[in-house]
Amino acid sequence: MLPPPHRVGRVSATATVTLVSKPGCHLCDAARDIVLAVVAETPGARFEESSITDDAELFDRFVEEIPVVLINGTVHNIWRVDADRLRGALQEATA
Length: 95
Fold this sequence. Notes:
Mean pLDDT: 91
Oligomer: single chain
CATH superfamily: Glutaredoxin
Structural class: alpha+beta
Number of domains: 1
Order of helices and strands: EHEHEEH
Distance between the termini: 37 Å
């Protein structure tokens, strides 16, 4: 007699939210607060931050647009973060 089939639970996807910022940027500080709050409430989401002052490629790409929020490496928004829009995008990315 064969054992019953093994049921695999649904595996949640993960999403990395990257804040591209620079020191002394008040918009970056506001964006960080919103992103951290939304990431904290989203299972499967994780936060990282990169400064354009530490990465020449990021500097060249985003110097006029910071803060920039990336989800899994793709630009989600620039300058201002809308918590509801970010929440929706993360729910979709981690579904």
